[in-house]
Amino acid sequence: MPADGSLPPAALAAVGRQGFGVYVHVPFCASRCGYCDFNTYTAQELGGGVRRETYADSVLAELDLAARVLGDSPPARVDTVFVGGGTPTLLPADDLARILERIDATWGLAPDVEVTTEANPESVTPESLKTLRAAGYTRISLGMQSAAPGVLAVLDRRHTAGRATAAVAEARDAGFDHVNLDLIYGTPGESADDFAASLAAVVAAGVDHVSAYALIVEDGTRLAARMGRGELPYPSDDVAADRYLAAETALGAAGFSWYEVSNWATSAAARCRHNLLYWTGGDWWGLGPGAHSHVGGVRWWNVKHPSAYAARLAAGASPGQGRELLSGADRHTEDVMLRLRLATGLPLAVLDDPGRAAARRAHADGLLDGAAYTAGRAVLTLRGRLLADAVVRDLLP
């Protein structure tokens, strides 16, 4: 990784050809959830040298570096901005507003820009939400995970069962155009009734987007340690499949349609355009420790610890730790992996001969939609969504 973060001319020539977004990583959390292995830190874990109060300045320093790197080849516009974490709303709302303002001043926000922040339900107030909305944030994604107190306790979530839906009402009152709730299913101890109640609460909250993910037990997490000691059972694939089917049924009945295997929206406008940028091969610059970026077929990632990140920027150097130039084969593999998860699927023509043969078998097995297949596209059926990873493996060489 060059010390100045410079990019090859071929990458610069392609900036924003398929859209351009900015991701901002905020690595702070009030406490660590037992299932989480993201690049996040509590105050106790950070140690000295890093303060929330000065974090925005480090992000803006990297934004200045990004402007120098893209130089005479800036994107035509910024289509999407996504602030994730961690818990971004642990930063003062004014800092989040300042970061967005500088992104606009640096590259220019598209007139219809989508600007999202993630938030934990307990980390926002009516006042902070109004500040964010006034600053130009259009979308908020709240980490609900479950409406069952026992499930929240297993996941080490701090908010109460009703706080997430209350935060939805506050976001709507603040004027947010789009509100998402995140669910996790398959947690040990979660019953079918627990998950049904969570889905009912989501629908009643009046959101226009829902993300639902099966619990994944990551090595090194507190949850993995508890399971390793036999305190909790490991998640069941069969239970996860049942929960997914329950989500599809309940959300479909409430007017939601899937557009990605784990995401449902009430309209095209409610879909997360930033994630669609990732899934369809667009470019983005990731600001913050551990953030990943992709520009013109070059992918790179920043150093993970906030102290190292801030120190590199203070020294005038790129915080990038490593990078790779994606080959044509790499890009093809990622394109198939990501596009097949979308409701729009992918053209059969992009597959090689073995891949098209695998698609024929998947169609015969009821994993690909018949009408779409006849029209020349590979689109997962409901059963195919349950086996999406296996279908992808078969389609790739």
TrEMBL record:
Residues 14-257 form the Radical SAM core domain. InterPro entries: Aldolase_TIM, Coproporphyrinogen-III_oxidase, Elp3/MiaA/NifB-like_rSAM, HemW-like, rSAM, rSAM_sf. It comes from Polymorphospora rubra. Keywords: 4Fe-4S, Chaperone, Cytoplasm, Heme, Iron, Iron-sulfur, Metal-binding, S-adenosyl-L-methionine. GO terms for molecular function: 4 iron, 4 sulfur cluster binding; coproporphyrinogen oxidase activity; metal ion binding. CDD domains: Radical_SAM. One of its GO terms (cellular component) is cytoplasm. This is Heme chaperone HemW. It comes from the Bacteria. Probably acts as a heme chaperone, transferring heme to an unknown acceptor. Binds one molecule of heme per monomer, possibly covalently. Binds 1 [4Fe-4S] cluster. The cluster is coordinated with 3 cysteines and an exchangeable S-adenosyl-L-methionine. One of its GO terms (biological process) is porphyrin-containing compound biosynthetic process. SMART domains: Elp3. Pfam families: Radical_SAM. It is found in: Cytoplasm. PROSITE patterns: RADICAL_SAM. Belongs to the anaerobic coproporphyrinogen-III oxidase family. HemW subfamily.
